[in-house]
């Protein structure tokens, strides 16, 4: 009975995380495809500040519920204490500042569109690093294991790994059309980067769902062997 306890707990974590990851994937796709006013997806990001604020809230809620639903079932993982809140906030603000500097170094306007640059940095921080902050805390060894060694252990870490990488990669890809001489309305900074970040985040959720499904299927097969 003791020997089966750990596999059972692992299957429970995988199942819960897979369920939430699939739900968040569908919810994100639906929200992304429903414009505020009329019939095009550009309406959703025509006001970049409104779009980023909305999506920051959506992603924070999704990450909170994914982590909250599985953290108590994960062996060796302790939930965050209230005393660590200031440390988490300080780290997150440092990450936002880092992304602000990086985006400016990569060509974002230094004096113009400062609010857009800041909100994009917050969006990228929430989508790209907040999942890791929720799962690994401020432990550098855990961050190194998850992102440098690419070895997520539990279900929620798989979600953090894929959403972080895909969000950052999507933001990077979204910057390519901006300097091109196409004279399109969606080339205004940082609309394409916001779309790239959101698209990357959704793709990360889908990839993590596939990863979790394969892992859960393998564990289910081993159980019946």
From TrEMBL:
It comes from the Eukaryota. One of its GO terms (biological process) is GPI anchor biosynthetic process. The chain crosses the membrane at residues 20-38, 44-67, 88-106, 118-138, 159-180, 186-214. Keywords: Endoplasmic reticulum, GPI-anchor biosynthesis, Membrane, Transmembrane, Transmembrane helix. It is found in: Endoplasmic reticulum membrane. One of its GO terms (cellular component) is endoplasmic reticulum membrane. Pathway: Glycolipid biosynthesis; glycosylphosphatidylinositol-anchor biosynthesis. It is a multi-pass membrane protein. This is Phosphatidylinositol-glycan biosynthesis class F protein. It comes from Potamilus streckersoni.
């Amino acid at each position: 009975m003791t020997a089966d306890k750990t596999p059972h707990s692992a299957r429970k974590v995988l199942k819960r995380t897979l369920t939430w990851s699939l739900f968040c994937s569908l919810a994100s796709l639906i929200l992304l495809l429903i414009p505020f006013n009329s019939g095009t997806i550009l309406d959703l990001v025509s006001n970049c500040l409104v779009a980023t604020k909305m999506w920051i809230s959506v992603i924070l809620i999704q990450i909170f519920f994914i982590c909250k639903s599985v953290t108590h079932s994960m062996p060796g993982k302790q939930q965050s204490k209230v005393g660590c809140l200031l440390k988490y906030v300080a780290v997150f603000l440092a990450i936002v500042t880092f992304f602000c500097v990086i985006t400016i170094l990569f060509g974002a306007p230094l004096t113009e569109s400062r609010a857009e640059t800041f909100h994009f940095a917050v969006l990228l921080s929430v989508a790209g690093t907040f999942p890791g902050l929720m799962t690994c805390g401020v432990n550098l060894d855990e961050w190194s294991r998850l992102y440098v060694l690419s070895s997520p252990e539990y279900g929620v870490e798989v979600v953090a790994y894929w959403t972080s990488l895909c969000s950052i990669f999507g933001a990077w890809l979204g910057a390519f059309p901006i300097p091109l001489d196409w004279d399109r309305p969606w080339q205004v900074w940082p609309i394409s980067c916001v779309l790239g970040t959101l698209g990357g985040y959704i793709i990360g959720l889908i990839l993590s769902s596939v990863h979790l499904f394969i892992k859960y299927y393998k564990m289910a097969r081993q159980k019946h062997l």
